[in-house]
């Protein structure tokens, strides 16, 4: 029984990771004034932030057409018996529903869709673990059970400059955004019940990052082995500085470094920083 692993572009896996683990990727798109671009395919993260800085219109994002999934699943059906398709939280995108619809339309292969309930590199943690298990000969049931086990220790927090991007993109209520703007705070956001919600509002970015680290420190105390990732929105130097600080403070944690690409960057805004983690399984 051969199992294919599929994800979308918002896992922000590197081309090397996708090749090494034989992961298939469906891109989401970002719509700018000069056209629509498939992220990770037609536009890089740095190109996106450069373009947005000079545009008057707020960019919009688009989930993949169902036909893209149908095309990929049909191709995979030639060599695989099953697909495990892992996507960003269904609470912020219809991408997962598109994969489910396509799975019902394609014959000759069983499509199992998994809601990561997060996005970005933490979503990638699920994808890589699934791919590793598939390569080791695990069954679909074993892989999905492991992903559910991971979900119980998965957490992700974002520090953003303001809430306007999320509010304009429809990912946060106008009331929550208004309060953040009036207080001129640096909001900390997290995923709760599949949607992005305010966690706390802190006066300065430095204090906000420190608060996220406090939450992380509690997780380190609760779990012996953690994987963690620092994520940046076109502020690599600041992100690496935070990463180095965290790695020095928590030498037993396996850290990595990633970025908010065009689609997620549209909603968080340039200069955002994130920290995600999960217990190693």
TrEMBL record:
Pfam families: DegV
Annotated InterPro entries: DegV, DegV_C, DegV_domain_contain
Protein name (Swiss-Prot/TrEMBL): DegV family protein
Keyword Ribosomal protein: no
NCBIfam families hit by this protein: DegV
Natural source organism: Ureibacillus endophyticus
Highest taxon listed in the record's lineage: Bacteria
Molecular function in Gene Ontology: lipid binding
Cross-referenced Gene3D superfamilies: 3.30.1180.10, 3.40.50.10170
Keywords: Lipid-binding
SUPFAM superfamilies from the UniProt entry: DAK1/DegV-like
């Amino acid at each position: 029984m051969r199992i294919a692993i599929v994800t979308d572009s918002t896992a922000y896996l590197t081309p090397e990771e996708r090749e090494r683990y034989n992961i298939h990727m469906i891109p989401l798109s970002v719509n700018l004034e000069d056209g629509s671009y498939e992220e990770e395919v037609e536009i890089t993260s740095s190109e996106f932030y450069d373009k947005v800085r000079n545009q008057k219109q707020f960019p919009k994002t688009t989930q993949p057409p169902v036909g893209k999934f149908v095309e990929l699943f049909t191709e995979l059906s030639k060599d695989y018996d099953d697909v495990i398709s892992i996507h960003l939280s269904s609470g912020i995108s219809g991408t997962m529903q598109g994969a489910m619809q396509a799975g019902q339309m394609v014959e000759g292969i069983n499509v199992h869709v998994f809601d990561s309930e997060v996005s970005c590199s933490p979503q990638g943690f699920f994808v890589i673990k699934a791919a590793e298990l598939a390569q080791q000969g695990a069954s679909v049931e074993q892989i999905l059970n492991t992903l559910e086990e991971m979900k119980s220790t998965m957490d992700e927090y974002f520090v953003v400059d303001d809430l306007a991007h999320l509010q304009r993109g429809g990912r946060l209520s106008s009331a929550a955004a208004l309060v953040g703007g009036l207080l001129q705070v640096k909001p900390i956001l997290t995923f709760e019940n599949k949607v992005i919600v305010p966690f706390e509002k802190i006066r300065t970015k430095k204090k906000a990052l420190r608060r996220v680290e406090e939450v992380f420190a509690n997780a380190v105390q609760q779990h012996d082995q953690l994987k963690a990732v620092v994520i940046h929105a076109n502020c690599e130097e600041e992100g690496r500085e935070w990463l180095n600080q965290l790695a020095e403070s928590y030498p037993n944690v396996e850290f990595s470094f990633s970025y908010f690409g065009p689609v997620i960057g549209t909603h968080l805004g340039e200069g955002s920083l994130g920290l995600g983690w999960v217990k190693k399984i």
